[in-house]
Each structure stands twice: as structure tokens, then as C-alpha cells.
């Protein structure tokens, strides 16, 4: 089961996905709200924290989560304090009951990863794409529109017709025809420069 623990939080934060299963994990930890009680309502045993990218709104709660649950964090840039262990492009990781491929997708930020499980059709896309053809900002440090376009195209090619739902860093998850939203994002990123 995938739950967004940041749902209805009014503070500036990313979505925080708790995925229960063989490996109970968080995808991003959010910021500016106390996520610990929200995790504890569901489980007292967290196995891993996976970081899509290290913008403050996605990692602000990481230290508190690591301390409260004695858990390690994983992401692309192990030099970032929020990331304890590096995940390589193409590496396979266990989230919940499924194996996910880490897909390196820079453009919004240099350390951005998406996670995709071909078996379940689930993708965690961080701030690469959003519902209704939205895409990650490129006006922040490390932002690069051309790299973002290439990353969206790479994600589209990787997930193909197998993707059934995309959980994004902000706003609602995409659970109906996610290929359409990916195509819209790829088009919009090229047009809205």
C-alpha cells in the first residue's frame, strides 16, 4: 500500500510516500511538518528512506526520520547530508513488495532520481513531471531545461506502456492514463521555454 503522509499538510513540503510491504520505505521525507507521528500511526518499523532529490522541501525531515526509526537514507548524491548511501543509475532497490529501477533524471536538480517498478507499474517521479503535463522547475540552481527534456524522454522510454500510476513530488498522483501526462509534460517542456 502507498500512502501520501503529507496529504492535507498546509506547510511547504513535498509529498511523502510511505510504502508498506516486504521493505517498508519512505520515498522523500518532506519538510516543515512533523512526519514522525504520521509514520508511527502506520508502522513502527521503517526499513529505508529513498530520496528523489535533495531540495529542502523533499529532505527537511530526513534527520528526524533517521533518528526516530534508526534507518538509513539512500539517494544519488552521497555527498549531501540527507543522503547516507548512494544509489547508482540503473540500480535495483526494494520498495514495499516490488523491485524498482533507479533512473537518473537530472534537469530539475543534478541528483534527481525516479524509481520505477515494471512489475507493479508504479513510478515515483519526484519533481520531474506532475499531473496534467506539469514538469519540474529549471530556474533554480542546477536546473537545466535541455537536461530535463532528455530526462522526461528517458523516463517515457523506460516506463513505456507498463506504467500504471505515477506518484509525484507535489500535487495529486497520476492514476489514470499516466502515459498521457508524460507525453503532455514532454511537449510542454519543449514549448514553454
From TrEMBL:
Mark the transmembrane ranges: none
Q: Does the keyword Protease apply?
A: no
Q: Which UniProt keywords apply?
A: Hydrolase, Metal-binding, Zinc
Q: What cofactor is needed?
A: Zn(2+)
Q: Which domain of life is it from?
A: Archaea
Q: Which residues form the Metallo-beta-lactamase domain?
A: 13-170
Among InterPro entries, the record links this protein to: MBL_Glyoxalase_II, Metallo-B-lactamas, RibonucZ/Hydroxyglut_hydro
Q: Which GO terms label this protein's molecular function in UniProt?
A: hydrolase activity; metal ion binding
Q: Which PANTHER family match?
A: HYDROXYACYLGLUTATHIONE HYDROLASE GLOC
User: By what name is this protein known?
Assistant: Hydroxyacylglutathione hydrolase
Species for this entry = Haloferax mucosum ATCC BAA-1512
Q: What is the lineage of its organism?
A: Archaea, Methanobacteriati, Methanobacteriota, Stenosarchaea group, Halobacteria
